[in-house]
């Protein structure tokens, strides 16, 4: 099995899906000749041509809106928004249109479209190249939001998203692109979109998180193992709709739960995770639910010490797990 | 003598069918207001004053193959594209059998896949980008379908209009941007909506053909849209056609238009009503005889009565069915 980076796994998934199904096509800013500013679409233009790998005008609402129309016609667009920070002009098309098309037409029309966008900080991206905006879109029935943590998950989940008959917002942590490497099978496989996965078995404290923070949590857990603290880690993988049973099982297993997100604390998707645990696990809990998140400031500052202050990291997670273990 | 419509390649049967569609739309619309004012249905959004523009445009397309992205005043357009009177009334009564949304959306929010009418929402102008995407998808699959998408002059200020128009222009996609300029965006007149003289002036910015025509005259609209459709099919890209109409009713059943315009202005506009002026033309060229006219009115009255009775008696969807079709349910029983 090949070891590859997170972004190469995404690139491989796109190549495979475009080869498999001629209805799959890519559109977005710089996705063609340039192969994307992060090179996620590298090689697609040469292989599949300008009709299926479309460099669009710089206008996000049109990228998504035109994609919706093409999906209604029966193709499977994969739209790239260059940074999730730039997706806001397309919110009306995503929330009012893509997410509601099947429902409002009583199952007559559908939008089988994937919208890919890099998110997340720690790359000196400042306020508008660092954000985690999944909280803005969660709570939109009709839309699915996938945020893979590993190259293996990224390939399998992206292929599942492209084959899904409903719109999927596929958010990729940009710092994970080249930082995270892992084994990825050469053959075709998909991973079900609605399932969280236990990434580490443990007995003392449960961490529930997603995206790059899964790796921070794994690092923290390995350090704590030496102190005799055993950490259970659940990777949500899909942050909307949530895999409620997996959350209940993971929380109930240890009775002490730490929820981690890189997003601002108030209004983030982990608040909903806390609500599910609160509803279902009262008698299983041995400590208050703990949350570790970005501060409630508008976004991540640029200057390195300020950026580091905002970002979560393995040390912060380690400290939070230790506190819970000692509760 | 060669008539105006014959010069455009339309025979007598075709123009009579155009008139019939306009009249059917008008009579259904009038019935909707009666039903609303008698408390039978909660809401009406009207097509009156725009039938000529819509029917002229629809008849210039291939109604077996092309797509339309409608907006909420397009009753005559969707009738021309194959929606039936019963289906329209089921929509108005919000009944389960409504093919547009099964009673989920407000009346006038159209969508019917089998007739290639795109589903649309209430936030205006979003459908413009979808109509562009339809032609992108068609081109990718090697199909020759074109699309026509409608919107008002107020909506032509939305970012989605400009973004989608530019996209279509760059890609040379066969989309007809069809502005039904009815002079008012609820209460705000054109003078406060547009800095340019005509909506069609906006075409040049997107490298497309633009033309403004009299929206009360279905033949003028037919000619302009036919030209735009031919351009599209020849690979010459999109067009922006503006049909100047007048909204003869308030914005909706919840609006009072006398708070922002005068009775005199509306009365003046009624003299130019396309349903009346096209009938006058058809009488003048001896296509619409007294017998034909009486038979048409009789036929349409029967259709509207039947549709009203049918939809009134039809069941609502089960309340619990509100939970269905959030996502694909294939495979589920």
Automatic annotation (TrEMBL), chain A:
Keyword Secreted carried by entry: no
Domain Transketolase-like pyrimidine-binding positions: 4-179
EC number(s) stated in the UniProt entry for this protein: 1.2.4.-
Keywords per UniProt: Oxidoreductase, Thiamine pyrophosphate
Swiss-Prot/TrEMBL cofactor(s): thiamine diphosphate
Keyword set includes Membrane: no
Record-linked InterPro entries: THDP-binding, Transketo_C/PFOR_II, Transketolase-like_Pyr-bd, Transketolase_C
Molecular function, one GO term: oxidoreductase activity
Name of the protein in question: Alpha-ketoacid dehydrogenase subunit beta
Organism in which the protein naturally occurs: Terrilactibacillus laevilacticus
From TrEMBL, chain B:
EC annotation from Swiss-Prot or TrEMBL: 1.2.4.4
CDD domains cross-referenced by the UniProt entry: TPP_E1_PDC_ADC_BCADC
Keyword hit for Transcription: no
EC main group: oxidoreductase
Listed cofactors: thiamine diphosphate
Catalytic reaction(s) noted: N(6)-[(R)-lipoyl]-L-lysyl-[protein] + 3-methyl-2-oxobutanoate + H(+) = N(6)-[(R)-S(8)-2-methylpropanoyldihydrolipoyl]-L-lysyl-[protein] + CO2
Entry keywords, A to Z: Oxidoreductase, Thiamine pyrophosphate
Keyword field contains Kinase: no
InterPro entries cross-referenced by the UniProt entry: Alpha-ketoacid_DH_E1_comp, DH_E1, THDP-binding
Dehydrogenase E1 component domain ranges (all copies): 19-320
Family: Belongs to the BCKDHA family.
Main function: The branched-chain alpha-keto dehydrogenase complex catalyzes the overall conversion of alpha-keto acids to acyl-CoA and CO(2). It contains multiple copies of three enzymatic components: branched-chain alpha-keto acid decarboxylase (E1), lipoamide acyltransferase (E2) and lipoamide dehydrogenase (E3).
Name of this protein: 2-oxoisovalerate dehydrogenase subunit alpha
Source organism of the structure: Terrilactibacillus laevilacticus
Lineage: Bacteria, Bacillati, Bacillota, Bacilli, Bacillales
